[in-house]
Amino acid sequence: MFKVVAAVCAAAALSLAVSPAAQASEPSPVAIQLTPRDGLRVDEDGTWIADQDDFYFRVSTSDAGDENLDELTLFVSIPDEIELFTISAEWECWDVDGGVECHNPRLMVPGESWPDLLIYARVHDEMDAPDSIDVYATTGEYGPAHEGVPFQTV
Model confidence at 98, in pLDDT bands (50, 70, 90)? Predict the structure, then answer.
């Protein structure tokens, strides 16, 4: 529960840093897609399950709106039992409480995508209960976009 509260607070802080009045009223034009890769399987309920100690996943983002967007910041929130290592050269990333924050200054026009963010992760503890991996995207004067998936180790 603390992770969820921390993730929501971090996303809110990111969104308020740009323009509080516009952020509250306009939904984000950023589309987010999470794709499991090596070391992950998806069960019948859509939960990502880490079958191995090491796994990775892809975060894809695009400008789904009707105007140019000039940069993007992502916050990737993770359960305490996993450790993230980014492996994408086209993003500037740093560790923050509850996950990792990444920034890409590229200008995007409607329909274009930012480079994929590849995340390599390692399980360092078994999970007692399912949790989630969540991505929050902020850009310009818009509220945060969000995409998340349930997650569990075995």
Answer: very high
